[in-house]
Amino acid sequence: MNYNVNYFTPNQPMLFEPQEALTLGNLFKNLYMSYKGFSNYYLQPSNERQKALLTLQIYEFVAHELNLYLDLYADDEAMLQLFKENTKKAHEARKQFVEMYGEIEVRETNGMHFDWIEGPWPWEFQ
Hints:
The protein contains three helices and no strands. Helix 1 packs across helix 2 and helix 2 packs antiparallel against helix 3. The N terminus is likely disordered. By secondary structure, it is mostly helical.
């Protein structure tokens, strides 16, 4: 999805690209202020599992930010469409991640065993 300025009418907010939005912690360019010159860095996944998880995080973050926006501007059809697109992409990314790597949330287990509990934990990587 291209989030460039030309995609929106003059009355709509300018948005960062999805990965940049996650990195900065804000989807909306007009609301972002850096903190004392601090510069963020892009996450660099080192394997396919991390890449799939980052993709999921990006789409869920953008959908959440758009959801917050729509709480205030519910009649904004363009943003509603972006929300729907990103929600669908997040759902697809989650489904693909779960199929490939297993559950990422603790839910009703019905006797299933979760491999993620076997480790290693993030702080155990060298």
